[in-house]
């Protein structure tokens, strides 16, 4: 799973970087290092890594801010390295877009296991869409070629944005999306408006595709995080 993957390590402690690097290279990874936040963002743009290991305590830019910057451009997996063990700190980091966290001091083997699991999960999430997607015994049908959506056989009229939201969910089934991730995927990385606008699009989409919008079977709310698609 790790062979040939590009991993960006962001940490200002040389010893930690060297340990992680040695383990990753042993697995066949191509490793890139950054001791400062600015260097990390520059490297991220240049190498387009498959995963980022990110320390939260950096000398110039906080790991939280780096995480926010990356999330505006990409959904690349991010594992936080943190000495902060308070639950509120961890939850805050996850809300900013990190996928997992490891507290210092840590076992390199545990970190490798976390990296492997996260990359495996990501590779399994995205699925190629067939021309016609049928859900819940033809309750909802999406014709990708015609850009046509039917509910119980009847064509329903979706806006362009609602259709993009639906396709995003279909491409990553069972993935929990934050509002920021949905906005980036649907409205574009340059969107800088009100982030709750995605809630309105979700509400309108539910009105059209759900049998009972108040008890959705397709787009479910993951409290404190965002939304997940559960149609089969």
Automatic annotation (TrEMBL):
It comes from the Bacteria. CDD domains: trans_reg_C. GO terms for cellular component: cytosol; protein-DNA complex. InterPro entries: CheY-like_superfamily, OmpR/PhoB-type_DNA-bd, Sig_transdc_resp-reg_C-effctor, Sig_transdc_resp-reg_receiver, WalR-like, WH-like_DNA-bd_sf. GO terms for biological process: regulation of DNA-templated transcription. Residues 6-119 form the Response regulatory domain. GO terms for molecular function: phosphorelay response regulator activity; transcription cis-regulatory region binding. Transmembrane segments: none annotated. It holds the Pfam family Response_reg. Residues 130-231 form the OmpR/PhoB-type domain. Residues 130-231 bind DNA. Keywords: DNA-binding, Phosphoprotein, Transcription, Transcription regulation, Two-component regulatory system. SMART domains: REC, Trans_reg_C. The keyword DNA-binding applies. The modification 4-aspartylphosphate is found at residue 55. May play the central regulatory role in sporulation. It may be an element of the effector pathway responsible for the activation of sporulation genes in response to nutritional stress. Spo0A may act in concert with spo0H (a sigma factor) to control the expression of some genes that are critical to the sporulation process. This is Stage 0 sporulation protein A homolog. It comes from Clostridium magnum DSM 2767.
